Amino acid sequence: MRSIPAEPDFTEAQSAEKVVWGQLRRDLPDDAVVAHSVQVRDGRAECEIDLLVFWPGVGLAAIEVKGGLVSVDDGQWYQSGGIEGRRRIQSPVVQSQSSMHAFRTWMEKQLGSRVSSRFAYMACFPYTRVPRQWEMAGCARTLILDADDLVSPAVRIREAIEREGGGTNPLATSFMDRMLPKLGQLESIVDLSYSAREAEDSQDQLTERQAILLAATRSLPRVRYVGGAGSGKTWLAVEKAKRLAKEGKRVGLFCYNKGLSQHLRNQVQGWRQAAPIFTGEFHEYALRLGVRDGEGQEYFDEQLPQELLGLAGSLLQTEKLDAVVVDEAQDFAPL
């Protein structure tokens, strides 16, 4: 395994990352590359990929490392430490997912082509044991590396990339060789920011196929775009929402999970002209309308839709949406 930088300068606070890096160095094949502490900026949001794995013939993996004892209770993540023995932390899975999206967006801009290689986001807890059958909404057990998995992490990383990674192709060595120099040119801190104007203008440069799709479906009241992971569906969703908003429509741009929600917000927050009325998780939008919060399959499949239906009749015309755009619609239950 090759490392970027060759000998990372781990701080005392990064001791857990050093342990994981050492295990990867021993277990990954010689042609794999691991980049440490890749700091990225998606719009105004700052993200960091603790360990970014490039594995030729397999794909990429962004790994968020959390030391100490990690737990989750009623959807809230905790890490050992603090006065009470544990402290609240942001979901490491969401952190990893957001960082992956940010890195992919920037790299595609640098290369001038899509990153269609399989790309997984993962969380690693080197001092915590996670039951093999554990799972929670938005996070399969495959995406977690625990203390036992670190005995042979390469097997688990390959499994995560091949089973859960977004993208259509294994990582080609030639494509990896195009990406790695971009990291080397950015030295120790990777500033992937670019202005809101540049971000918006770059979205105006449609590929021929995307332009045809949007133009051909402009007058249709209901459209579904279907494609493999990494084929540009999120880009189409953002662009469609942008065009509808510019037409003066009240637009809702929705998704299901927090990581993608943050990525969508980063994409639209700097728009100079019309923007969606709401961008983010559909559940959050429902709560804003006055739906009671809840959890469990019955709540999301039955209670929440019924309450929304009851509220819809009382909304003023100016409060209703003219258009709804949903990214990753397969995450929602079928109507």
Summary of the model, kept short:
With 335 residues, the protein is an alpha/beta fold. The protein has helices at 15-27, 92-111, 153-164, 173-185, 196-203, 208-216, 233-246, 258-268, 282-289, 297-312; strands at 2-4, 33-42, 45-55, 59-65, 70-73, 76-80, 86-89, 119-124, 144-145, 251-255, 278-281, 323-326.
Description:
The chain is of the alpha/beta class and 335 residues long. The protein folds into two domains: 2-185, 3-Layer(aba) Sandwich (Trna Endonuclease, Chain: A, domain 1), CATH 3.40.1350; 196-331, 3-Layer(aba) Sandwich (Rossmann fold), CATH 3.40.50. The chain has ten helices and twelve strands. It has helices at residues 15-27, 92-111, 153-164, 173-185, 196-203, 208-216, 233-246, 258-268, 282-289, 297-312; strands at 2-4, 33-42, 45-55, 59-65, 70-73, 76-80, 86-89, 119-124, 144-145, 251-255, 278-281, 323-326. The strands form three sheets. Strands 1-2-3-4-8-9 form a six-stranded mixed beta sheet. It has a three-stranded antiparallel beta sheet with strand order 5-6-7, with no helix packed on it. Strands 11-10-12 form a three-stranded parallel beta sheet. α1 (15-27) links the parallel β1 (2-4) and β2 (33-42). α2 crosses α8 (258-268). The longest helix is centred in the first third of the chain and has 20 residues, at 92-111. 34% of the residues are buried. Mean pLDDT is 85; it is low at 185-205.
